[in-house]
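Before a colleague's protein record goes any further, I have to sign it off. Thanks in advance; the entry in question is below:
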Amino acid sequence: MAAVGDIIEVKDFQALSNIAGTILNVYHFQVSSVAGSPVINNMGADFLSWWYTDYLPPILAIQSGAASHIRIEVTNLMHYATEFGTFTPAAPVAGTVASEYNSPTAAWSFELVRNLRTTRNGSKRIPGVPEAFVANNVAQSPAPGLMPAVETMMGDTQTVGTGSPNIIMIPVIIRKPVLVSTPPTVINLVSSVTWRGLGSQTSRKQLL
């Protein structure tokens, strides 16, 4: 059962048309409050509704329609062996920009700014950069105007479930133990999120 202080990991699996394999973004949240007795294994509908209806829309608005989100894997890292689930929407959820993607390796780069120096800053690279949003490797309108909504969502408090049970959680950066079954002990709040520009899937430091 999820409790205050637990770390919830959400793995977002994505695909690009005509490209083999999947692309993965991993998000971490710390539970700040709960209602009822929330068990992740039993909350598939709640997590699907939150992720695909509430969390993803600002991200979909900066992704090509040739990029799609195909499933999420959710794990309570404090109960790694027993509390987890793989949740799949009825159909893949695609980006909303009517454009091919710029490059299989191109990504929108975001920095999750740490609250303390106990970890590095976090990083998120969103694939499926629309070709129509880029010229000469520089973001073009309307892309810059869409980024604040993504920054806000990545840095905001999240609520999973509309009644009881539900989970309220805040974004964090963690230092993962070597053994994945070991609960993390180094946990850092995300103080803000900053769009860094057009980057690459292959390097957290490279910006085009």
Remarks:
- Residues 7-207 form one domain.
- The radius of gyration is 17 Å.
- Helices lie at 44-55, 57-60, 143-155.
- Residues 204-208 have pLDDT under 50 and may be disordered.
